[in-house]
Amino acid sequence: MSKLLQDAGFRVTKPRIRLLQALSKAGKPLSIKEILVKMRTKADQVTLYRSLDALARAGIVDRVDQNSGIAQYEFAPEKPHHHHIICTDCGYMDDVSCEVQQFIQTPPKQFSRVTSHNFELFGQCINCR
Ligand SMILES: [Zn+2]
Ligand SMILES: [Zn+2]
Ligand SMILES: [Zn+2]
């Protein structure tokens, strides 16, 4: 974690390390509220939001914005390409693997290649059912 921060030009601080560890351990996107719980800290949301924003600009975390309007963050390094499923009731989010690869290899006739894609899944989590 320290090297990751140093390479991106950040000062290595305990809160930053703990933030990245919480995200990395979760292995899925977390909202700011969830991150605060995982870090077991009383740090305020504005400060946390600012450091997440800076880390997102450096590419260390990914900000995942679904239509829920709740910003969620995940640890970006070494994560394979994937998509997200979100609970329409509570905003709970999880990773899903990408099943679009085959379509990308054989695009429609009028296209020479597919350069990117966007894909979101929505549903109800087990807590909301
Ligand atoms: Zn839910
Ligand atoms: Zn993800
Ligand atoms: Zn995909």
How many runs of DSSP E, i.e. beta strands? 6
Q: What sequence of helices (H) and strands (E) makes up the elements? A: HHEHHEEEEHE
Classification by helices and strands: alpha+beta
Tell me the major beta sheet.
Answer: 3 strands, antiparallel
Strand order of the largest sheet: 1-3-2
Residue runs with pLDDT of under 50 for 5 or more positions: none
Please tally the helical runs, counting DSSP H or I stretches of 4 or more residues: 5
Bound molecules: zinc ion
| Cα-to-Cα separation, first versus last residue | 37 Å
Radius of gyration: 17 Å
Shape: globular
Portion of residues within helices: 25-40%
How much of the residues is beta strand, in percent?
Answer: 15-25%
Average pLDDT figure: 88
Give me some keywords for this one.
single chain, 129 residues, alpha+beta, three-stranded antiparallel β-sheet, three-stranded mixed β-sheet, 6 strands, 21% strand, globular, binds zinc ion
